Amino acid sequence: MGETIQRILAPLNKKQHEAVVHGGGPALVSAGPGTGKTTTLTRRAAYIAATGKALPRNILAVTFTNRAAREMRERIARLLRSHRHSDPPFIATFHGLALHMLRRDIENLGLRPDFTLYGREEQDALVKDILAADPDPEKPAPQRLGELISLAKGMLLTPRAAALKRDDPELVENAVRYALYQKRMLALNALDFDDLLMLAVKLLRTSPDAAQRWRGRFPYILVDEYQDINAAQYALLRELAEPLRNVFAIGDADQAIYAFRGANVLNFLNFERDFPSARIIALEENYRSGPVILEAAGKVVERNRDRMERALFTARTDRIPITICDAPDERYEAEWVVSEIERALGGATMFQHDSGRVDTAEPDGEPRALGFGDFAVLFR
Length: 380
What we know:
By secondary structure, the protein is an alpha/beta fold. It folds into 3 domains: 2-99 and 198-301, P-loop containing nucleotide triphosphate hydrolases (Rossmann fold, 3-Layer(aba) Sandwich), CATH 3.40.50.300; 116-188, Orthogonal Bundle (Arc Repressor Mutant, subunit A); 330-374, no CATH class. It is built from 18 helices and 10 strands. The strands form 3 sheets. It has a 6-stranded parallel beta sheet. A two-stranded parallel sheet has the order 4-5. The protein has a two-stranded antiparallel sheet with strand order 9-10.
């Protein structure tokens, strides 16, 4: 067991170590880009299991994508080789967690456990069907109505509550359509992904037996990308975390990008208010970028109103300058990007293009190989 713990802690820097070995109670880790967020989260889960604080199956880790959940699962499994015969930690997306809970306990809410889970295509078809029978010439486009229904559910608003939300006239105007959508879904014994979160929260709030069972199952809760949770996800975590409140949340307020989907960065910034005994830890050593990138990015994000102060630094000393191209149009921009890649490749021949590798030289004359896989083109 000591060997496992040593393997978990060995590569960590001081702040990462502080986060991973955190005792009980709530903790918020403000992790800047490139500071080892996933490393810290996975090693925290592994540390809890390796030190016997909880069995692996009693650890819950929640993230936003199935891909991230798979990666986390694989990393933790490698760290806990000595626990390979135990049930692993439960690692899932918010929706995966809610689905798992409802498949077992949805009958407590008076609904059938053999419900069908509607994806985007089925939802869109139902919304279009509802609007096709709507004579109102001012009715919204199908995509917009779907977005409004999703936003309402993300705020845990029933159709009745949506009709009373006076600060959102568009939602009020479409509350009847939302109600019709829910009526049709009920008749079809179907749920959409937003229903999963709403009903999981309702389950924990209205079924004491189910709430006690799920809270007992997961005494330790780890949350990835905490800055991007919406009201429904926040409520699910708060309900599930009682009464121990062993919530370990990690994220970065400067990377909050999902407000258009109902995410609220204030959930991150108000963590201390919501969990008064919370420990706040900042990961500030960046392993990904040089000082020039950090300085430039810092100048941009320091203008954000809703953020948590933090001073990123790096041990790297290379100061490669940032080049800015003021392009008159999209075509020029694209041609400039292509020409920069071609220049960096050193004027590749057709053979070298086909082989995918080009030999260039470092300043000291040592050769190095560049291929197209060494370049990233980001756009929005």
